[in-house]
Design a protein that fits this description.
By secondary structure, this protein is of the alpha+beta class. It contains 6 helices and 14 strands. The strands form 3 sheets. The protein has a 7-stranded antiparallel β-sheet, with no helix packed on it. The protein has a 4-stranded mixed β-sheet with strand order 2-6-5-4, covered by helices on one side. β5 and β6 form a beta hairpin. α2 crosses α4 and α4 packs antiparallel against α5. The protein is globular. The two termini are about 25 Å apart.
Length: about 325
Amino acid sequence: MPLYTAQDVCDYLMSGTGGGSQDGEHRVIRGAVHHAYRDLCEARDWLWHVKTGEFTTDGVNADYDLPADVKNLDALLSPSVGTLRYYISPTDYLRLNINSSPAGDPFYFTVMRIGDNPYLSVRFVGVPTALTFQYLYRQRPEPLSKMGFEPRCRAGDVTVTSGSTSVTGANGADFGPDMVGSAIRFSRNAVNYPESLSGLYPYAFESKIAAVPNSTTLTLEDAAPQDFTAVKYYISDVLDVSPGMYTAVLSGAELWYARLAGKGADQPLALYQRDIRLAMETDVTNPLSGRREGWLEYPLTPRLAGYYSVQLPDQGV
């Protein structure tokens, strides 16, 4: 499946405004893409952004920092069977922690910031024993910083041979470690910069960047399907969105462009409201179709047959 990148959304806006990468309004276009992506990711707890994490308590400390991308999390799970760990509000945590500091199980926990720490932390009432906790959490994607049009994201040219993952840059190419995880797209020639698949010069090959050994060398996640010799390229951040969410990013960028450019926002707002509603309706990650093969192997009960269930369309679960 093609990668959805910030460059694609910029190209989409420029196709509607008639702008180009060197136009004065390009700053507005890039700002619109940045804000639209942030707004969509914060609009709800998307199932697309559900991830797993874990941390291990040491039997000494009661507070444990969560990763920087944690937006919120579910209940904590551990191998200690039969022990309940209840989430409580920060207010109740403070009340209990002041009056009691037990060690071991059972215990309560809350999730909150500690001091000026910009990240969330799990805070236990008392000190838990040494255990490894697993949890589900909603990820907050990194903000966009590379739209593909910045000078260092397309400076010089690149060369890679067929079947190789090592890319060599020349004539001013300047790669950095912050490009790991971004997408790189290769043109078919040394003249035209690669565009999205709907452009006049669609890219010939794309891959995520796996490593940056030095300022003139990249390592790809995927091997090149053919030789690319001294061709133009773009490097752009990958949008962490599902196909159903992508259209909402586009219309959200249109809405933000209208706001930043001082244009009428009524029609873009209506389109965005429609597209984000559709994105929410299609926010599923279960790969099953909702119809299980071999279901007759299980005892046929009224609940299994759905007699007590609300009649709804296939939900994909």
